[in-house]
């Protein structure tokens, strides 16, 4: 145990930006004995080696960093044991922890998960919640066990999903919420105020990993489904269609509302047909309904508002095709 009984001895396992707020928060209130993150890997067109966001922040804060290729290695398990951790906090680490690791810390391994378990267990809970049209999501703090996100719940907190929320805005809000809730949960564990609740068997869903192919728009779908797709894949992999043989990325859109001021008199047309175009947006016919595209990007260009895009393009009567 640490000399200050209010400061727990923690390990921290995380890799992407989502984990950084929790690392920062816990580094200010507890003792971080080791930060585990994925090995450095080449990325981008130049295949330059990039440090993970968690590694960069840990080095800035002077925290010791470990980058094992696997937690199954005996030397990694031995290292964990030598640290005499109160808990290992796991946030989007990127590896499944073996059962031998889960038993090492005194209070166990505690996970910050970006959904209200048991809904959306798995890799992409934020995107899947948007694709499904969920009205709310949240953070669950869970004690880890061998199953995929099946462990008992220590704490949970929900937030509403707004009509303008994207995967990016939800990611950022949930990262901050997770940092706040893990600190509260650790305080409760330390003080003996924590209560575990087993996850219910009903309501289990799985958030499979996102593939780039899912971002290819099919205008034969209804406008609401396409709108959800665009929001779920912003900022990655970004929804896309084709225009005159080129890739056209759709960053922002909204269901067409003919009751708004300055709305066009868009009518039904073949899916993908551009019905109207103005600085307010580009109205595209869907299998059911109309979608107003408000921000888009041709391959090799910067994202533009509809008004800026239309300065160089004539779209009415054109057809956006499946990518």
Give an account of the 3D structure:
The protein is built from 8 helices and 17 strands. The protein has 2 domains: 9-207, Formyl transferase, N-terminal domain (Rossmann fold, 3-Layer(aba) Sandwich), CATH 3.40.50.170; 212-310, Methionyl-tRNA Fmet Formyltransferase, Chain A, domain 2 (Roll). The longest helix has 24 residues, at 167-190. It has helices spanning 20-29, 53-60, 74-83, 99-102, 125-132, 167-190, 223-232, 306-310, and strands at 9-14, 31-36, 41-43, 48-50, 65-66, 87-91, 109-113, 121-122, 136-143, 153-160, 206-207, 239-243, 246-255, 274-278, 281-285, 290-298, 304-305. The chain has 323 residues and is of the alpha/beta class. Residues 259-267 have low confidence and may be disordered. The radius of gyration is 23 Å and the shape is elongated.
In short:
Helix content is 24%, strand content 27%.
Instruction: Report the mean per-residue pLDDT as an integer.
Output: 93
Query: CATH homologous superfamily of the largest domain, by name?
Result: Formyl transferase, N-terminal domain
CATH topology of the largest domain: Rossmann fold
**So how many helices?**
8
- Find the count of extended strands (DSSP E, 2+ residues): 17
SSE series = EHEEEHEHEHEEHEEHEHEEEEEEH
CATH class of the largest domain: Alpha Beta
What proportion of the residues form beta strands (DSSP E)?
25-35%
């Amino acid at each position: 145990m640490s000399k200050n009984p209010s400061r727990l001895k923690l390990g921290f396992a995380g890799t992407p930006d989502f984990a950084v707020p929790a690392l920062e928060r816990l580094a200010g209130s507890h003792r971080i004995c080791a930060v585990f993150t994925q090995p450095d890997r080449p990325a981008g067109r130049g295949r330059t080696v990039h440090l993970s966001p968690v590694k960069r922040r840990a080095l800035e804060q002077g925290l010791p960093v470990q980058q094992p290729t696997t937690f199954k290695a005996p030397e990694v398990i031995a290292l964990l044991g030598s640290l005499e951790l109160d808990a290992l906090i796991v946030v989007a680490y990127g590896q499944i922890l073996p059962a031998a690791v889960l038993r090492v810390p005194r209070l166990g391994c505690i996970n910050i998960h970006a959904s209200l378990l048991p809904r959306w267990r798995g890799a992409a809970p934020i995107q899947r919640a948007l694709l499904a049209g969920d009205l709310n999501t949240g953070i669950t703090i869970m004690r880890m066990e061998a199953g995929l996100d099946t462990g008992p719940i220590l704490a949970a907190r929900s937030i509403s999903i707004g009509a303008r929320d994207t995967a990016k805005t939800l990611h950022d809000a949930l990262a901050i919420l997770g940092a706040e809730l893990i600190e509260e949960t650790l305080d409760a564990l330390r003080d003996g105020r924590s209560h575990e609740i087993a996850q219910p068997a009903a309501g289990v869903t799985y958030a499979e990993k996102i593939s780039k192919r899912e971002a290819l728009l099919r205008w034969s779908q209804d406008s609401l489904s396409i709108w959800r797709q665009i929001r779920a894949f912003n900022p990655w992999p970004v929804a896309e269609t084709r225009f005159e043989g080129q890739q056209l990325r759709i960053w922002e859109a909204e269901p067409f509302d003919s009751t708004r001021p300055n709305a066009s008199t868009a009518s039904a047309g073949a899916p993908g047909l551009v019905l109207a175009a103005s600085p307010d947006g580009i109205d595209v016919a869907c299998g059911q309904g109309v979608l107003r595209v408000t921000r888009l990007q041709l391959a090799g260009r910067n994202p533009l508002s509809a008004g800026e895009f239309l300065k160089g393009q004539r779209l009415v009567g054109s057809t956006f095709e499946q990518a």
